[in-house]
């Protein structure tokens, strides 16, 4: 048996794989973080291995600073391309007979396809499994959104469980791969005064913002299937909310990352937050669609939302009465994602903690200090942390963390099926409320408004 692990990527000619996943492998090899693996890339666009790798070479060389072709050559030696169609799987299954799957240490199936074909891909994987000895571990890695509603997720999860146990199913939310998001765990667990300040006693409100300048681009078909509620709210937003609001369990002193008791406790605490979420009055819900969206997707009748604003509430003593304002949208004036915690204050200049996720990864604490020579007059200042300024290095890209965690079997930052199930319950309730109250999708000008402009 080979010591290598085999990644099998479905959708390997799509935007996600070529723009995010494959460049992450390049950086991991360049930093010598990963070695014993192979990639089998399955796609439809390119006829052969040479044309596929030529396209990847052009893409990476154009976008990566200080590009090193020898690193990419090494990655290409580990990569095979197969032009296949999941609607005609027999030739692919025949090809796999020659690929000697039984010789690999572990096989990781990665779905980077449209959500609408997940079921068909999983049925293909079920057939592939028949060629793999039962003693070889298999992992299923799937990109959000995980279904379209609660019922569809239950169906997907049943298919997953036929292929692999829950511990080997990895639900990818790339926001959880970002270092600043991971830092929320350490910020709360190892700075106890911060964990204690995060409660209704001290916090006035919390804002969670995911603001994007670009539109849907080439993802029009995907976006018509999801909208911003399924694309961003169901996963990124609810994950960020649960991390900042949960009662953090104590970190393990022996092995802080891979301690199973910590992972289990954290998943439970996140589920408790999601299970206690309450929707607001309908008057506080705003749905928007940027002006040029219908041209982008060539559908003048589309009612798909590209922006949502609403407050959420948590039914718990810790967070009683505190609104968690959610604002996420496309074609806004600025690309930025952050969590802003606004504290109760005795002055008009409120104390705030801002955890910026992108474009910079940093944490700011806004406090009041005395102005020199001005008696007791004060001014707000920012106490700032960022990785580059403090440690002299940039944080790794999110997909680097995701791939290495899947490779090593570290599930700290991956949601479990119960969290996803409860998140779909919230989305289904929100969707039902929108339909019942007939909340209209309003037009907004492209790249004119900031996310904060939509706050009440």
What does this molecule look like?
With 456 residues, the chain is α/β, with parallel strands linked by helices. The chain has 2 domains: 5-143, NAD(P)-binding Rossmann-like Domain (Rossmann fold, 3-Layer(aba) Sandwich); 176-454, Dihydrodipicolinate Reductase, domain 2, CATH 3.30.360.10. The protein contains 14 helices and 16 strands. Helix 9 packs across helix 10, helix 9 packs across helix 14 (417-437) and helix 10 packs parallel to helix 14. The longest helix has 26 residues, at 220-245. The mean pLDDT is 91.
Blueprint of the fold:
Layout: E1 5-10, H1 15-30, E2 37-43, H2 49-63, H3 69-77, E3 79-83, H4 90-97, E4 106-111, H5 118-129, E5 138-143, H6 150-163, E6 169-172, H7 179-189, H8 192-197, E7 203-211, H9 220-245, H10 260-275, E8 277-278, E9 286-290, H11 293-297, E10 307-314, E11 324-329, E12 336-343, E13 352-358, E14 362-370, E15 378-386, H12 387-391, H13 398-408, H14 417-437, E16 441-444
Parallel strand pairs: 1-2, 1-4, 2-3, 4-5, 5-6, 7-11, 9-16
Antiparallel strand pairs: 7-12, 8-10, 9-10, 10-11, 12-13, 13-14, 14-15
Helix pairs in contact: 1-3, 1-13, 5-6, 6-14, 9-10, 9-14, 10-14
